[in-house]
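Final report, closing paragraph on structural work. Over the funding period we assembled a curated collection of sequence-structure pairs, and we close with a single example.
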Amino acid sequence: MYVWMRLLRVAATRGRRGPYRMGDEGRLSFRCLPTDIDTNVHLNNARYMMLADMGRIDIFLRSGLVGAARKHGWAPLLGGLQVAYVREIGLWKRFDVISTIETWEGTQVLGQHRFVLEDGRTAAIVMTTGGIYDFANRRFMPVDEVVRTIGHDAPPRPPNAEERGFMASHEGLRARAKLPA
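Its predicted structure, as stored:
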């Protein structure tokens, strides 16, 4: 139930955060609740993924992607992620999730979610890859086309070495997952 309440809060307060433009940061503030913890009394690893979802949904809502997706029969889909945990987020502690669209190439979008403690230190980073699926044409959309459709004209920056490594690792895992068991 609390997941839905957090989602409703993100949707209801999106206007206060203004429109999302490529290159911006989305920032959502949370507190680690008793329903978020594991036996070590800190934020459960699955909650990081759920809260990163909130950051992506915030960007989708504020950028106009949700409206365009409904209009064109598209859906944003997460392809994979990589996480680095650096510091714990303890029970009742406040933290921010800072979400960005880092870049895109072809049909692949790279995003990042930083979990930042009140003192400014990073607790974790989640790097994601995904795309926009066009159900009518049964294909992933070129991201440049999606970006233009939602009224943005920012070109992507070239992926850096770390992002290229993530993309290659992701493609390798996808290929392996498609092999017969």
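Strands lie at 26-31, 74-85, 94-105, 108-117, 122-134, 139-140. The first strand starts at residue 26 and ends at 31. We thank the funder for supporting this effort.
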